[in-house]
Write the structure tokens for this entry.
Amino acid sequence: MKKRWWHNKTAYQIYPKSFYDSNGDGIGDLRGIIQKLDYLKDLGIGIVWISPIYQSPFIDQGYDISDYYAIDPAFGTMEDMDELLREAKKRDIAIVMDLVVNHCSDQHEWFQKALKDPFGPYGEYFYIREGKDGNPPCNWRSYFGGSVWEPLPGYDNLFYLHMFAKEQPDLNWENPALRQEIYKMIRWWLEKGVAGFRIDAIINIKKDLRFEDFPADREDGMCAATTMLASAHGILDFLMEMKKEAFAPYNAFTIGELFDFDQQELKRYIGEDGCFESIFDFAPHLLGGSDHGWYNRRPVTMDQFRDAVFASKAISQEIGMMANIIENHDEPRGVSRYLPAEGQTEQGKKLLAAISLMSFGLPFIYQGQEIGMTNKTFRSIEEVDDISTLDEYQVALEHGYTGEGALALVAEMSRDNARTPMQWSEEAHGGFTTGTPWLPVNENCQTIHVKEQEPQENSVLSFYKKLIALRTAPEYEEAIVYGSQEPFLEEETDLTAFYRKGQEKTLLILANTCSKSRTITLPAPIKKVLLNNYAAPLKATPNHQIPLQSYQLIILETT
């Protein structure tokens, strides 16, 4: 593939509200990010994606934007943003912002003008439709539960569409005037110096304009929004226009959040002439899901995780570079989600990290992942802030679960697991703030934190640094960044093993994903042990046999 500046980088996602609080108000801010830039540089980070910092009522934690051109006072000022861009540039760190243009906040001036005149020009910025005898136009279900249609205040039989919360009206991408407003805003931020955008929920911008009912998939008589998306065609026309008019003139880095897309069209998304530079690889994250709700999810094994990764890479490595993630702000902590209880050790955390960072693709680390942060323990639904978790809790109650049982089921997947404040030290609130944090810190903050791990040669944090350094080591960069990924012993259970084959170097990654020891026979001799998640040296036996301990991970150079 054509080489790009970002291919050998490691990216890092910051959820600003929970990253670092510089002024003691309990909310992370831009100045907190500035103060931690040296930490990110030392980790080896080259790209930083910052979740929304725009002006917002925070119904959905900033993904409901009321002014795309303003920084919310909770995070600081535009001057702080300018300083962040300058300081990041000094450290060769590219700043990527969140682009949320499927919807805006109901407090945005566009929607407020639409409320005053739904039949005027700003009414065409949204999907405002007549109902059926006072009922919603169709039976689509919102991602956050309930109908995607909300009655338009002050009008009889008029509804507006929202794929997410009712305070997040969807923008009408069929309207050329609306699209030009979006492109103008994108260009404004690129002129300011951001390197590009992570593009939120972008698959949703194309609707099935018939606005008809689909077969119900739950007792509520509604259908999942994804059912409608499967019948909506033409999104690539919008995306290619956005690239041409907004991204391409600035050589912007763009990475899309796409769950429900046609695999046959992957080339049109991330190929050489695709509409994005990259998209996130959500193949492992789709495992275990259920159309009925979180209460009906199935547990995921490490073999299933492996198979999902291998299947995805078999397709993508011939087309372009997808982004590898273990967790993000919308997912629970990967350590708690994918590793069985006995594997949630330092060895297991390092093993999971290596599978992600050594696989073909652009690695994204979510804040706290590099120190092995885990899910939080929720003792009451009152501790939950996340709108999605609250909806899924109600769904579980409606299906007969007790309050305690429903909480246990939905807590495993709650987005709040990843949104608890970053754990910097053993100080109060994990060193995140001198005030009261907006969301309680994980109870294990006294034992899992940056300050404790930084000086330790064998800590999870140090292992992440070694993995990142290996990706960019001149001797191995070509194999790890651009080399092919080929499964090894794929039929074995409780084993994730694969080659990364470059033109001159061949690496073999072996991960024993269970608590039992085993011996692996290699087809070729070992040249060098590059990384080992155990402190003790690896002892190879005759005939190229490698003994692996519980959750042991080794990276070898071989012939």
The chain has a mean pLDDT of 96. The domain at 11-102+176-453 is CATH 3.20.20.80 (TIM Barrel). The first helix runs from residue 30 to 35. The chain has three domains: 11-102+176-453, 109-161, 484-558.
